[in-house]
Write a structure and sequence with these properties.
The complex is a heterodimer of chains A (335) and B (295). Chain A is built from twelve helices and five strands. With 335 residues, chain A is mainly alpha-helical. Chain A folds into two domains: 81 residues, 3-Layer(aba) Sandwich (D-Maltodextrin-Binding Protein, domain 2); 192 residues, no CATH class. Chain A has a five-stranded mixed β-sheet. Chain B has two domains: 213 residues, Rossmann fold (3-Layer(aba) Sandwich), CATH 3.40.50.300; 58 residues, YebC, transcriptional regulation domain (Alpha-Beta Plaits), CATH 3.30.70. Chain B is globular and about 70 Å long. The chains are: A mainly alpha (335), B alpha/beta (295). Chains A and B meet through helix 6 of A and helix 2 of B.
């Protein structure tokens, strides 16, 4: 048994080592992840809470709450804007340390609840102020993020692996023998996946929305347009990876390399408010960031098309660019 | 004589460590069946895939109706690859419909079903077809655009004898409609039955070309004698005869049957299991290369 096991083990190792693209990628991905994570998570302990501080007086810095660990204190100057961010879960609490101290917290924010307890344990005289405007429940803020995440996985993996399977099985070679062009083939894949993704998203929206009592404030047509452009961009991104490779490990690794940064940095679970500037800039590269920004603006704040035009333009441009690159680099078979 | 539909000129295809096709030239006349014959690795599939426009040649060219390969050749070609997978979960009819829609013109799906005897299999999942049924479907797909030229790359490899004969009948009916067929095979019987002209390939080169009977006449003098190898004395191998070893047989070709038999009897070679027959393409290949075709 051991002999047979070793024979298969050895053959599999040879297969892996001789597939140079996969080998290089397998080595590059963890290095890139380690380097990236060391940048993101280097320095002192990561804060758990984000608190906006409304003061520039140095005396205010003596307030004991400002010395709490695991709380990131972000200086803010525009009170109205900061209160708005508390309402949208971009800040867990807004704190004005002048005597007596005042604070604003979103009653529907789990993190806000805990950080309020921390504040009151240090200063029980702090005065709670109401959050002006409509405070957004966390689930309302999270809902577009979860829908977006589901779309991202379906778009990237659904297309990437299907094209890879077609190539490996020889089906692409058979299509190559017809007048079908790469652009036509790829466009058909994009449209097929788009139909499926939109169908599933509508089902989730209609099914889960009423359960969590979610009500979109903006135009549902505009939300649909955002979903279409976002899905197109991410499907086309998946095609750029599947365009020419025939190794599952390589394609799987490349798709993971794309999805993980989006999972962490596109604002699915939490806001990047207070993160280093370069992290926020990096997040702007990802289509998912723009899709979620636009979707939240429309669904939660009732924004119109002019307010999300920049995000829509970015999604449309990246969709065209990725599709063009995919068609250019596409190979029907490995020569 | 009809004009060449396809012309292959000094075709060469090299990979990093091997030259798969090494300066191949030939022409295929319209309405004929042209066979590329040779053992595995001879360069048949590489040659035919360059002719189909699937592979790029390292040098040389292929011309279709006097023009370089392009959209016209693709529109007018039907191809059956050695190995092809179809989309999962589709029925026979759905697969045919999909491929039919990729072409501007061609047979209707009903015609394709009838031509390939797939009437009873139309609603079957393509993954549940037998080898012979699968090849019939792939042939129907190759005929979807009513092609002028049909490429068949080892179409019956792996089929059982009955399925193979059924497939030959289909190809003969297509041939009867004056379509040009390019066929690669390592089955002699298939080549003799279907091909008007053959090119025998070995090591990426064409080593003989012509009509099957013409080639046999050119290379063989009438008869071939077969004897079991184990009954053939080692000393008799030095006899002044044209001797070849073919598996478990020793083959002798001769135009002087009486004289050859006399030489064998004088050398006390047992003739109990002697078989005399006309030579075939397999013998021709052995004669030309010293190798068996299906080795």
């Amino acid at each position: 048994m051991i002999k047979r096991l070793l024979a298969v083990w050895h053959a599999r190792n040879l297969e892996f080592v001789r597939d140079r693209n996969t080998l290089i990628f397998t080595l590059v991905v963890p290095i890139a992840l380690v380097v990236g994570m060391s940048f993101v998570f280097s320095g002192p302990e990561r804060p758990l809470f984000k608190v906006g501080v409304l003061s520039t007086h140095s005396a205010a810095a003596q307030h004991p709450f400002l010395h709490e660990r695991y709380v990131e204190f972000v200086p803010v100057t525009d009170r109205a804007d900061a209160i708005y961010k508390v309402g949208r879960h971009q800040l867990d609490l807004l704190f004005a340390p002048q005597s007596p101290a005042h604070y604003w917290v979103n009653a529907d924010s789990p993190k806000g609840y805990i950080v309020e307890k921390l504040l009151l344990s240090e200063d029980h005289t702090a005065v709670r102020e109401p959050v002006t405007g409509t405070a957004v429940r966390y689930v309302d803020w999270l809902f577009p993020g979860v829908l977006g995440m589901n779309m991202m996985f379906s778009c990237l993996f659904g297309v990437g692996y299907v094209v890879l399977r077609y190539r490996k099985s020889g089906f692409l070679k058979r299509l190559h023998a017809t007048p079908l062009t790469p652009f036509e083939f790829l466009s058909a894949q994009v449209l097929s996946r788009l139909t499926l993704v939109l169908f599933v998203t509508v089902i989730l929206y209609c099914g889960v929305g009423p359960i969590i009592h979610f009500h979109a404030r903006g135009s549902i047509v505009l939300v649909g347009l955002i979903a279409i452009l976002g899905a197109l961009s991410m499907i086309a991104l998946g095609l750029t990876i599947a365009a020419r490779f025939s190794s599952e490990e390589l394609v799987g690794g490349a798709l993971n390399l794309m999805t993980w940064p989006m999972m962490l940095l596109s604002g699915i679970w939490y806001s990047l408010e207070g993160s280093p500037r370069w992290v926020q800039l990096l997040a702007q590269i990802f289509p998912l960031t723009h899709m979620l920004n636009a979707a939240r603006a429309v669904m939660i704040d009732g924004a119109g098309i002019s307010q999300v035009a920049a995000d829509l333009a970015y999604l449309a441009l990246t969709a065209v660019a990725f599709l063009a690159f995919g068609a250019w680099s596409f190979r029907w078979q490995v020569d | 004589m009809s004009e060449p539909l396809l012309e292959v000129r000094e075709l060469r295809k090299s990979y990093a460590a091997v030259t798969a096709v090494d300066g191949v030239s030939f022409a295929v006349r319209s309405g004929t069946c042209f066979g590329l014959l040779g053992p595995n690795g001879a360069g048949k599939t590489t040659t035919i895939e360059i002719m189909e426009g699937i592979l790029a040649a390292t040098s040389g060219e292929v011309r279709y109706r006097g023009e370089p390969l392009g959209r016209r050749s693709r529109e007018e070609s039907g191809i059956l690859f050695q190995k092809t997978a179809l989309q999962d979960f589709l029925t026979v009819r759905q697969s045919l419909t999909m491929f039919r829609h990729l072409y501007a013109s061609g047979h209707s799906v009903d015609e394709l079903v009838r031509m390939s005897s797939l009437e009873k299999l139309q609603q079957r999942d393509t993954r549940k077809l037998s080898g012979g049924q699968q090849q019939r479907l792939l042939l129907a797909i190759a005929l979807a655009n009513d092609p002028s030229v049909l490429f068949l790359d080892e179409p019956t490899t792996g089929l059982d004898p009955q399925a193979r004969r059924n497939f030959w009948e289909l190809v003969q009916s297509i041939k009867a409609s004056r379509k040009t067929i390019i066929l690669t095979t390592h089955y002699m019987e298939e080549a003799e039955l279907l091909c008007d002209e053959i090119a025998i390939m070995d090591g990426g080169r064409i080593i003989a070309q012509g009509g099957p009977q013409e080639l046999l006449r050119k290379h063989f003098a009438e008869v071939l004698l077969e004897l079991p190898k184990q009954e053939f004395p080692a000393g008799a191998r030095e006899l002044p005869l044209r001797l070849f070893e073919a598996g478990e047989r020793v083959e002798i070709t001769t135009d002087d049957l009486d004289g050859t038999l006399r030489v064998l009897m004088d050398a006390r070679v047992p003739l109990t299991n002697l078989r005399i027959r006309p030579p075939n393409l397999e013998d021709l290949f052995l004669e030309l290369t010293g190798k068996e075709l299906r080795a």
